[in-house]
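Open question from group meeting: does this chain pack into something compact, or does most of it stay loose? Before anyone orders reagents, we agreed to write out a predicted structure and look at it together. Recording both the input and the output here so the notebook holds the full record.
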Amino acid sequence: MRGLEYSMKPLWKCLPVVLGAFAVSAAISDADAVKQWLTKHAVPLKTVEAEHGLDDLQPLKKILKDVRVVGLGEGTHGSREFFQFKHRMLEFLVKDMGYRVFAIEASYPACWNINDYVLYGKGDPAKALASQGFWTWDTNEVADMIAWMRRYNEKVSDDKKVKFVGYDLQHLDRALEVIAGYIKKVSPDYAPAAEEAVAAFRLPQADYIKRSAEEKDKSTARLFNLMGYLAMHEERFKRMTSAAEFNEALQEARVLAQYDEAYGRGMGPGARPGAALGSRDLYMAENIEYLVNSQPPGTRVAVWAHNGHVGFDKIGGAADSMGNHLKKFYGDAYYAIGFTMFEGGLQSRDLGSGNGAGPLKEFAIPASPEGSVGWYANLTGLERFFVDFRSAPKDGAIADWLATPHPMVSVGSGFSTQWTAKQYMASTKLRQTYDGLFFVRTTTRARPNPSGVR
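Structure tokens returned:
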């Protein structure tokens, strides 16, 4: 995302983005023109809640008709209305546009428990949701969406069922289980070497990062040996099991290698210059590509992530975001939607004076300042709306406005009441960053599930 913390999430996940002074538009005098254009072209939305009809979303059919992957962003990692509208968008994309995969910014290995529930009703949904490991998603809103997915899947044929998958490279316990189980099945004599190759991944993330450069070199070499062993015996192992089972074991090992590059090689002693910057976003995009390619041809995917991942801004001003990579993979068949607000509540970790991540708390974002994206959107008088930027004018006042940087709310999993607007907003060129925008005037805190791990 914008800033290093979104190219590499630290232990408390996302910090807010600080980009220095904002280039507030000099065209405040053009506010009336912007207001008129937004009001005319906005798609007003009657509600953010799912299962209240989809008539007001029908204009999006034309906008998204040739899109294969939709990126659903969020201005904060803890606003209820953002989460609710993404649930509603999923309902629309599944029912009216034939989407069959939902992918969230959560662990690739750890989301399979949730998928087993939404597809087959296996397990306890609360435990499955908690098992993905991030408190950001362990909320009432995501639980409601999972419950809806299960109800929907119970009523449709297998070819219409929607899957729940993750694409991030953290929380790796299931990956270790899959790899160990597969090696014992196809080559039990190699099992001790395979366990040695993955042993370091059982360490807490902080300890994994702190290892010496020599230790990192050795564990990386062992992992690559394991991956090479799998690749060398691919055809035989597929005959012994199945192509799908082999591919999954290799992909889980690939996720370990991604984690090693991003957190082991990219941070701490002996870190490779530039290894951290953008590597997580690259690998998340590649995992989405892998998931798409593993589905029947033409499968359409809804992607849930923070604005900074779905959009096209450069990370740290240099590295490509996940959205940039997806744009390279799919061209105009990828459509990025930024989510923003005028004011309201959210939940986040309390960073206090910035000396570490504190407890999960409720915070408030005050009214967006003049010249910000939320301020302009609020001029319409609409409580909530969607607007498409691809169809916006290519020149003139509106084109200039879309090309000019404006402050826009951007909060991750950490927040402090000591911050000013410059510390919880990011300078954003709308058309350069997103294909469209969802706006809701007022947000409230996402509601944490009582069973969630904090």
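Observations to bring back to the group:
Residues 1-27 have pLDDT under 50 and may be disordered.
The chain has two domains: 4-166+300-443, 173-281.
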